[in-house]
Every structure is written in structure tokens, then in C-alpha cells.
Write a sequence for this structure.
């Protein structure tokens, strides 16, 4: 089974790994690419020196396709990063957290396949007008940075698919083959997984965070900074619940975030997570996650085809 996403990106399985700050580094991204999906290196951490090293490391870790996300709001030197990506022949980029007209035309002129991440129909209109090759359509139920006024994947994907003839990667609420099949039925031609990748063996974050995802219900996330930027969907902790209730801008230092990400202190910073955490019951290797999801997706689609045929 092929889609425009697999053909355009040269991958076997139409699963893209989400560009999670400090998490989407070479260890995780290369594992996703080696398993047949598309690994992505993040820039939302803003740590560009480390990110450049991670991009270079990908060449050593895999000969499979991979890409980079450029989170425009968090990158201090967009021109320098653009030049680095072109110099090192990065073939696929997703842009996000900013106006697609700023980078998309430049990337396209440089021969880079470019998707833009959108949380709304209006965002999709702007991205298509800027000349994107495709869209990552992100529902509000997903973890991490969000548009607080966004809609769910179930609402956004079919609406955007009906309006624009570009490949869509559905993001938010995707965790396995059944949810993947649902996304394809709505008009997507690939999916993005974030929370499921956080709770993988190759994910670099602390085991406490991974176990918290496994233990959590779908109701146990919080939307912090709902009335400010950036809004964030996180695991429910005492800190996250307090910040959501206070309705004040959440200011978190790098030390507190690192204490959560790599020290395992779940009350120090904020642990991003989507509502789909309620469907994750174990920490699995990336290859198991991708292969089982793709096999189940195709089984589900075949079964639906049989039902329709009868």
C-alpha cells in the first residue's frame, strides 16, 4: 500500500515522528527511520548548537530518509539554520510556529520538500498559498504546543482534505493501526505520532515520564497557558493543574524542564502528553510500534473493505 506521503518522502510506512523539543534527537529519529517511518529532528528547544550536531549524527546513524522541523518562533537565527539545512542537503523539512510565507518559498527554491504544521483551516489556506508540498494537520487533543482555539483531528482532517489537494499527515490522537486507519479514511495519507514515541524504548526522556504516560487515563492531561502563548497540553500533575487553574502565563526555566525530562522529577517542569496516553499500555521499541501499527492499519482497512463489499 502506497500513499503520496510514502512516495514523496521515500518511506515504507507513512508514520512521521513528532518533533518534540529535546526528545526528537538523533537516537529516536534514526530508530524511526530505520524502522521504515520518517524520523524528525526538532528545533523547538532552541538549542541550535546541539541540533546541528544531531543533524550531522543522523548521517552516521541511518541511510534512510529523515527530516528536520523548523519551529520558527523558537529559532533565533532562521537564516543561519536555513543555510545549514541547505548546505547539508536535508531533503525534508516541516515548518511550524510561524508564518509559512517566511520559509516555505525559500526551502522550495532550494529543492527541499516542505510540509507546514497547521491547527486550523485558515492555517492550511496560508500554507497552501505559500506553496507547501503537504500539510501536517494537528488536532487539539495532541500533546505539546497547541493552538488553544484549535479543533480535533476528527474535525480538521476531513475538512482540510476536502478543500486542498495536497498530502496530509494527521497528528493528534494517533497511536496504533486502528487510529491510523481512521486518519486515512478521513483523507490523510500519513500520520504523525508524538506521545506514542515518547513512551518508546528509544525515547531519551526519563523512565518516570514514560511510566506516567502508561499509567495515565485519557482524561489526565491539562491545557496550560490556554489564554497565552504557547498553550501546551501536558500530563496532569499538581503543577500543571495549578498553572491551568491560575490562568497566568507559565514561566518555566530550563533547569526545571531538564529536571523533568532527564531527571524524572514530574513536578519540576511540564511533561507534554496527548489525550491518546489513555490508549498506551506499555513502553515498546520503535520498530515494534511502527510495524504493528502499519500491519493493524492494513488489516482494519481490508476488513472494512470486505464489509462494504458484502
Amino acid at each position: 500500500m502506497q500513499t503520496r506521503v510514502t512516495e514523496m518522502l521515500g518511506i515504507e510506512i507513512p508514520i512521521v515522528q513528532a518533533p518534540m523539543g529535546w526528545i526528537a534527537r538523533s537516537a529516536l529519529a534514526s530508530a524511526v527511520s530505520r524502522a521504515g517511518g520518517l524520523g524528525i529532528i526538532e528545533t523547538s528547544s532552541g538549542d541550535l548548537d546541539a541540533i546541528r550536531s544531531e543533524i550531522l549524527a543522523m548521517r552516521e546513524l541511518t541511510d534512510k530518509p529523515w527530516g528536520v522541523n523548523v519551529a520558527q518562533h523558537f529559532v533565533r537565527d532562521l537564516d543561519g539554520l536555513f543555510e545549514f539545512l541547505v548546505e547539508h542537503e536535508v531533503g525534508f523539512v516541516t515548518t511550524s510556529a510561524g508564518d509559512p510565507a517566511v520559509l516555505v518559498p525559500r526551502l522550495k527554491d532550494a529543492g527541499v520538500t516542505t510540509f507546514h504544521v497547521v491547527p486550523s483551516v485558515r492555517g492550511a489556506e496560508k500554507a497552501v498559498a505559500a506553496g507547501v508540498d503537504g500539510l501536517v494537520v494537528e488536532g487539539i487533543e495532541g500533546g505539546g504546543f497547541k493552538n488553544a482555539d484549535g479543533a480535533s483531528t476528527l474535525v480538521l482532517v476531513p475538512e482540510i482534505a476536502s478543500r486542498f489537494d495536497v498530502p496530509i499527515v494527521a497528528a493528534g490522537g494517533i497511536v496504533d493501526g486502528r487510529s491510523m486507519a481512521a486518519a486515512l479514511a478521513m483523507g490523510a495519507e500519513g500520520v504523525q505520532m508524538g506521545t506514542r514515541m515518547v513512551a518508546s524504548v528509544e525515547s531519551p526522556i526519563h523512565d518516570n515520564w514514560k511510566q506516567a504516560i502508561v499509567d495515565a487515563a485519557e482524561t489526565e492531561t491539562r491545557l496550560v497557558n490556554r489564554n497565552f502563548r504557547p498553550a501546551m497540553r501536558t500530563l496532569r500533575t499538581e503543577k500543571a493543574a495549578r498553572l491551568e487553574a491560575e490562568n497566568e502565563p507559565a514561566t518555566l526555566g530550563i533547569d526545571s524542564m531538564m529536571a523533568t525530562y532527564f531527571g524524572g522529577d514530574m513536578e519540576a517542569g511540564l511533561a507534554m502528553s496527548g489525550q491518546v496516553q489513555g490508549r498506551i499500555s506499555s513502553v515498546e521499541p520503535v520498530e515494534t510500534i511502527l510495524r504493528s501499527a502499519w500491519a493493524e492499519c492494513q488489516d482494519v482497512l481490508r476488513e472494512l473493505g470486505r464489509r462494504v463489499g458484502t
